[in-house]
From TrEMBL, chain A:
Signal peptide residue numbers: 1-33
Top-level taxon of the source organism: Bacteria
Entries under InterPro entries matching the protein: BCAA_transport (IPR051010), Leu-bd (IPR028081), Peripla_BP_I (IPR028082), TAT_signal (IPR006311)
PANTHER family membership: LEUCINE-SPECIFIC-BINDING PROTEIN, PERIPLASMIC BINDING PROTEIN OF ABC TRANSPORTER FOR NATURAL AMINO ACIDS
Cross-referenced PROSITE patterns: TAT
Protein name in the entry: Twin-arginine translocation pathway signal protein
CDD domains, sorted: PBP1_ABC_ligand_binding-like (cd06338)
Protein family per UniProt: Belongs to the leucine-binding protein family.
Automatic annotation (TrEMBL), chain B:
GO cellular component, one term: plasma membrane
MF (Gene Ontology): branched-chain amino acid transmembrane transporter activity
Protein name, as recorded: Branched-chain amino acid ABC transporter permease
Database matches in Pfam families: BPD_transp_2
Keyword Cell membrane: yes
Assigned keywords, A-Z: Cell membrane, Membrane, Transmembrane, Transmembrane helix
Transmembrane segments: 28-48, 55-73, 79-99, 106-127, 147-166, 197-214, 220-240, 247-265, 271-292
Domain of life per record: Bacteria
UniProt membrane topology term: Multi-pass membrane protein
Localization per record: Cell membrane
TrEMBL record, chain C:
Protein name listed in UniProt: ABC transporter ATP-binding protein
InterPro entries tied to this protein: AAA+_ATPase, ABC_AA/LPS_Transport, ABC_transporter-like_ATP-bd, BCA_ABC_TP_C, P-loop_NTPase
Domain ABC transporter: 5-239
UniProt keywords, alphabetically: ATP-binding, Nucleotide-binding, Transport
Gene Ontology cellular component terms for the protein in this record: plasma membrane
UniProtKB/TrEMBL annotation, chain D:
UniProt family annotation: Belongs to the binding-protein-dependent transport system permease family. LivHM subfamily.
Protein name, per record: Branched-chain amino acid ABC transporter permease
Keyword Transmembrane: yes
GO annotation (BP), single: amino acid transport
Length: 411, 316, 242, 289
């Protein structure tokens, strides 16, 4: 390349950077004038595309849309002075990339200057945006983040809230349910356990191993499989070859569906059959009809709770599909908490954060009070009973159904 | 001397870019971080793939290695040492991969590099699950966007300077010769494998550093997050858009494309994939040699064909 | 005196096909030797083995006593062997001067910097392309591309030059220019192995010839004698050449 | 135990073979490395799902609609997008690289359309999820169907390609595209036919896979990757190779899961894949050189 061409190229690139700088300088002004507001601006960035779209599409996006629709149909968010302001939504796609999620939140906070930011889907993404949310003073009501380190995160980011518990909660509750069933003679003390090689699966299995051991169970099969696994024939055959009465899989939706299908094929129906994420999805019930009976998983609902029933009906009506039985209602409830906090203290974010931490809220998931910024009152174990996925543990929680073991065989 | 002028201008631009974030809000800085990150990725990618025409999809493999190294070591080693370790690991992997693959040509190299990223991801996962017993890792480094931006900007300057220096060096000439005709290059006395290996390793090391520098921004790191294959493809298309054989080409492709993606995902979040796909197809169709070559082609008096265009349209 | 290039019992097999069987000959210092034979007789395979493009199945090649038959092509080039190709292979994204510069920079003496540019210009001038270094190789005519390729080969300052049908496809006047060029090289003391079909050129340039057929040497000796050899005539006629 | 693993592996491999055959034809004959292959499969999954759940059409009957549709659409895509690339490419290498880039764009377009139409949710239905006893090993009928269709389509196509005039034409294009015109072969038409045929095979794979696997709009790349591995294993353009490579991949994954560690199945696959690329890039059944 000759010198002149080089210089021309250089000048061109300088001008390109100049154009970019112009674009950026627009960033430094941003929208101001919050007076005379006609709406409450609420923004969120979730995975509309990419690898996480499947999870976000079931739990997060429908509930965000449903809530906005519900609130705006009622005339908007109620403020302490009795006036109502409609919600204006700013929606971004994080494309299942952490970097995009971080930048989208920066944009929502400093460019769009929204009033509130709803959290993204997934543990990793909620952690990625946590420092920003804390720094910008936004309450972060993380739902789809299962982490045992929530107490530590609350200390680090005091405006963060963690609503779905930690891996250990689910595992120890399961171990307790199993111990009770064994003592009642429904199952023996051997367990075949598999888990997906991903953050969630590892968290649960790491907590399950000691919990099961402490409860006096013997792990006769314990394997970890990669996320990309689609054929579980070998695993199921080996589990079936053991004498274990319990099969526990800490799996993601694709695995959960495949495990369910393939265990029916090989006629593997142990007395206790526990699957991971996805067993509470509507499509799980559609695909397996009455065979879902007795299958256990995370989450659940209280079938006699009228608010929950009303929520599920609305979800079906507006979204056109039933809600899933685990995180959906919590997601919707988290928004109701925000809504009620605003109703009590207005749009001041600090006050809302304070109210979220200390207040008591009436939601679709029942009455909620957070402990140390965490929701502890959750269904850790659920079971399909009579076509509904009901919560069975904690057994002493109000509305708990009794676990029914052994599970009936496949039809 | 025009070179001197160019250097003064470049230094001034660099100084301007360095102080720019002081006047920007967090989102503006976030944009600069993303943009600069891709400028470095695309430039480093083009450093090897531009002259040799070996299309590498291993970008994310090295990017992920960098990010993971920081996640593993950030709490046990001082930060500069962590970066050094990331460099060393990236370099080692690049040398091993380079030694075993540089015999592969054309599509087989593309497929290999694509598979490599997946293999490394599987191995990291397996290691974490079976040896360390955790999968996600946390990075609590006290860096804000602006610190990451300054590091990336410095790396961008170094990368462009290296590219410029290589393009004028014996090595640069060797690579262009290799890209044209490996047999002729070898018979002219060029150690083809060594030239390719050196550049591949250098390019991979820079890419590793980008991953290492950007990782603290995400706080939480797991294989699915850092080995996201889209990064490889975006890097590739940015470099192609600007022109992979020019010094400023990749940067010139990365900046507008990055801003375009940002605009699309903000304004058409639901149609992002479709528009991105169509745009990708259009670039391959209408700008196979990049914008710079296109502009130069338009300016060039008729009849004079720039060399790269000839390669595509002319006789084999 | 040990000969400059010495080939002994060279053999090359591709799968089931033996392309070169037991070939031995030598080229002395400053000598131009013709390597003749009908198409497919194994000439280019021999050339490829000398330059390192192919690895011999058996046999040895030495240059001034150094065994080069197991080396990579770039190492062989740096030992002083340069070649041209049967079909010209210019490096299209490089200018004419840069094409030559490649050999200067990586050849025997590794020239780089301003003096390398001067040397490139010098080599181009030698082959008759003086002042055209800045041009794009695509703009050169066929003969000029051949000249450029010769300049590129000469730029590494080889001790042995391998010309693979370098004179083919030239017009009679161009041919004369080409023959004169090679003669000047010989005058400068360079050894040349010439694979050629144009008998006038062979007669004009080579004192000695090696003739191959079906992978074997069928004649070897002074050019005039060899070309009258009934076996050689038969081989060419059998192949359709006369 | 060994027989069990063997049969499970072969049945799993049937899916891989079916998924890979379309790609190998497109790559081998049309010289198009189609990265959107997996997304074509997913599109067929959704088509079959709609036909099943909305129109109550059995997936077996859906094949009659979806497979021809796959052919016609792929033919159109070839005319619209691939043909100009083929026309401008100076050599096979440039075309292969161009095709990777352009089909990567296509991948996003198909994925985007599916996302807009169906959202990002997991989708699926059950069909033929009944046990079949195969020499004492229980396998799912729908997966067995995949193996069966892979064998039927594979062997039929192998026969057609090697015995009929039309097949010879396609093979000639695959082996020596530069010489094909000399014997009066219309390369463009042959390449288009092969590309469309690949699309039809992808559609077949999609319909079959949808019977037993839940899918989302974004998981196409997983199928592409698997198909790519099989194609490299078997050698590009070789249907026999794809068939055997697919079965082999199923066996490798099953044996690693059974005898080594289920956590290493994918790592083992990629290791074999990469080693093969280095040692024998033409695959087990590819043309040498």
């Amino acid at each position: 390349m000759s010198q002149t061409v080089l210089r021309r190229a250089f000048l061109r690139s300088v001008s390109a950077f100049g154009a970019a700088a112009l674009f950026l300088s627009a960033m430094s002004e941003g929208a101001t004038a919050q007076d005379d507001r006609t709406s409450v601006r609420i923004g969120y960035a979730v995975s509309l595309s990419g690898a996480n779209a499947g999870g976000a599409g079931i739990t997060t996006i429908p509930n965000y849309r449903l809530w906005v629709e519900d609130v705006n149909a009622a005339g908007g968010l109620l403020l302490p002075d009795g006036s109502r302001l409609p919600i204006e939504v700013i929606e971004y796609d994080d494309r299942s990339s952490s970097e995009e999620a971080v930048r989208a939140v920066e944009r929502l906070a400093t460019q769009d200057e929204v009033d509130f930011i709803l959290p993204p889907w997934g543990t990793g993404f909620n952690l990625a945006i946590a420092p920003l949310m804390a720094r910008a003073g936004y309450p972060q009501i993380a739902v789809t983040a299962v982490t045992d380190r929530a107490p530590e995160f609350v200390e680090r980011w005091p405006s963060s809230f963690w609503l779905l518990g930690g891996g250990a909660d689910y595992s120890t509750a399961l171990a307790a349910v199993m111990a009770e069933a064994r003592d009642a003679g429904a199952i023996n003390n051997q367990v075949a356990m598999i888990s997906v090689a991903d953050g969630f699966g590892i968290d649960l299995v790491n907590a399950a191993r000691p919990a099961l051991a402490e409860a006096g169970f013997e792990l006769v099969y314990d394997e970890v499989f990669p996320v990309g696994t689609s054929d579980f024939s070998t695993i199921l055959n080996e589990a079936r070859a053991t004498t274990a009465d319990s099969f526990v899989a800490f799996s993601y939706p694709p695995h959960t569906f495949a495990l369910m299908q393939q265990s029916q094929v090989v006629d593997y129906s142990p007395p206790l059959f526990y699957l991971g994420v996805g067993a509470g999805f509507p499509v799980f019930q559609n695909m397996n009809a009455e065979n879902v009976e007795g299958v256990m998983s995370l989450g659940g609902i209280d079938p006699n709770n009228p608010q929950n029933a009303a929520y599920r009906e609305r979800h079906q009506e507006v979204i056109g599909a039933p809600a899933d039985y685990w995180a959906s209602v919590i997601t919707y409830s988290s928004l109701q908490m925000l809504q009620q906090a605003i109703e009590r203290v207005g749009l001041d974010r600090e006050a809302v954060t304070q109210e979220l931490a200390t207040g008591t809220f009436e939601t679709a998931a029942g009455t909620i009070t957070l402990e140390n910024n965490q929701l502890r009152d959750l269904w850790w174990v659920g079971q399909w009973q009579g076509g509904t996925f009901v919560g069975v543990a904690p057994t002493d929680r109000e509305g708990a159904s009794a676990p029914q073991l052994p599970k009936p065989g496949w039809n | 001397m025009s070179t001197t002028v160019a250097f003064i201008l470049a230094a001034a631009a660099l100084a301007g870019l360095a102080v720019a974030p002081l006047f920007l809000n967090a989102y503006g800085i976030g944009l600069l971080v993303g943009m600069t990150g891709y400028v470095v990725l695309a430039s480093a990618w083009a450093m090897f793939s531009g002259p040799t025409r070996y299309v590498s999809l291993a970008t994310v493999a090295f990017f992920g290695i960098g990010a993971y190294t920081v996640a593993v070591l950030s709490e046990t080693l001082p930060y500069p040492l962590v970066l050094l370790c990331a460099c060393a690991i990236g370099l080692t992997v690049a040398l091993i991969v380079g030694l075993s693959t540089l015999r592969l040509a054309g599509i087989y190299f593309v497929i290999f590099t694509f598979g490599l990223a997946e293999l490394i991801r599987q191995l990291v996962t397996w290691y974490e699950v079976n040896v360390t017993g955790t999968l996600g890792r946390y990075i609590f480094l006290p860096f804000e966007g602006i610190h990451i931006y300054w590091q990336l900007l410095a790396l961008a300057a170094v990368t462009l300077l290296l590219s410029w220096w290589i393009s004028r060096s014996r090595l640069g000439l060797a690579l262009r010769a290799v890209g044209d005709d490996e047999v002729v290059a070898a018979h002219a006395g060029i150690n083809v494998s060594r030239a390719k290996l050196m550049l591949f390793a250098l390019s991979a090391t820079i890419i590793t550093l980008v991953g290492a520098i950007q990782a603290p921004r995400w706080v939480y790191v797991e294989p699915a997050i850092v080995f996201n294959p889209t990064i490889s493809f975006l890097t590739l298309i940015m470099a192609l858009l600007g022109g992979a054989t020019r010094l400023w080409g990749p940067a010139l492709g990365a900046v507008p494309l990055f801003l375009l993606f940002e605009w699309l995902s903000a304004n058409f979040p639901n149609y992002f994939s479709i528009i991105l796909g169509i745009f990708f197809i259009c670039i391959v169709f209408f700008l196979p040699q990049g914008v710079l070559a296109k502009i130069e082609g338009l300016r060039r008096p008729a009849g004079k064909v720039p060399p790269e265009d000839k390669e595509r349209s002319g006789a084999a | 005196m040990s000969s400059h290039l010495q080939i002994t019992h060279l053999r090359k097999r591709f799968g089931g096909l033996v392309a070169v069987k037991d070939v031995s000959f030598d080229v002395a210092d400053g000598e131009v030797v013709g390597l003749l034979g009908p198409n497919g007789s194994g000439k280019t395979t021999v050339l490829n083995m000398i330059s390192g493009a192919l690895l011999p199945t058996a046999g040895e090649i030495t240059l001034r006593g150094v065994r080069i038959s197991r080396l990579r092509p770039d190492r062989i080039a740096r030992h002083g062997v340069a070649r041209t190709f049967q079909l010209v292979r210019p490096l299209p994204s490089l200018t004419v001067a840069e094409n030559v510069l490649v050999s200067l920079a990586f050849g025997r003496f590794k020239h780089w910097g301003p003096d390398a540019r001067d040397l490139a210009e010098e080599k181009l001038a030698f082959v008759g392309l003086g002042g055209r270094g800045g041009e794009n190789v695509a703009n050169l005519t066929y003969i000029d591309q051949k000249r450029m390729e010769l300049a590129r080969a000469l730029a590494s300052e080889p001790a042995l030059l391998l010309l693979d049908e370098w004179l083919a496809g030239l017009t009679p006047s161009e041919l004369q220019i080409g023959i004169d060029l090679v003669r000047r090289l010989q005058g400068a003391g360079m050894s040349v192995l010439l694979v050629e079909h144009i008998m006038d050129a062979v007669r004009a340039l080579c004192a000695r010839c090696v003739v191959m057929n079906a992978g074997e040497i069928i004649a070897h000796g002074p050019t005039e004698t060899v070309l009258k050899d009934p076996g050689v005539v038969a081989a060419y006629l059998g192949d359709g050449h006369a | 135990m060994l027989i069990d693993t063997l049969i499970t592996g072969l049945v799993a491999g049937g899916t891989y073979a079916l998924v890979a055959m379309g790609l190998t034809i497109q790559f081998g004959i049309s010289r198009i490395m189609n990265l959107a292959h997996g997304d074509t499969i997913i599109a067929a999954c959704f088509a079959s799902f709609i036909l099943f759940s909305v129109f109550g059409l059995s997936p077996i009957l859906a094949l009659m609609i979806v497979v021809p549709a796959g052919y016609v659409l792929s033919d159109a895509i070839y005319r619209l997008i691939m043909r100009p690339l083929v026309a401008r490419a100076p050599n096979a290498g440039a075309l292969e690289v161009d095709s990777i880039l352009v089909t990567f764009g296509l991948l996003f377009v198909i994925q985007g359309v599916l996302l807009v139409a169906f959202g990002g949710n997991y989708t699926g239905y059950t069909f033929l999820n009944t046990p079949v006893d195969l020499f004492g090993t229980i396998v799912a009928a729908n997966r067995l169907l995949a193996l069966f269709l892979a064998l039927v389509f594979g062997i039929t196509l192998i026969f057609v390609l090697s015995r009929t005039r039309w097949g010879m034409t396609l093979r000639a294009v695959s082996i020596a595209p530069e010489n094909a015109p000399l014997v009066g072969i219309d390369i463009n038409r042959a390449a288009r036919t092969a590309f469309a045929l690949g699309g039809a095979l992808a559609a077949t794979a999609g319909v079959v896979v949808s019977m037993y696997q839940t899918f989302t709009a974004t998981i196409g790349v997983i199928f592409t990757m698997k198909a790519l591995i099989v194609v490299i294993l078997g050698g590009k353009g070789s249907l026999t190779g794809a068939l055997i490579g697919g079965l082999l991949l199923g066996l490798v994954e099953t044996f690693v899961a059974a005898y080594i560690d289920p956590g290493l199945t994918l790592a083992a696959t990629y290791t074999i894949f990469l080693l093969l690329l280095i040692l024998r890039p033409t695959g087990f059944f590819g043309q040498a050189g």
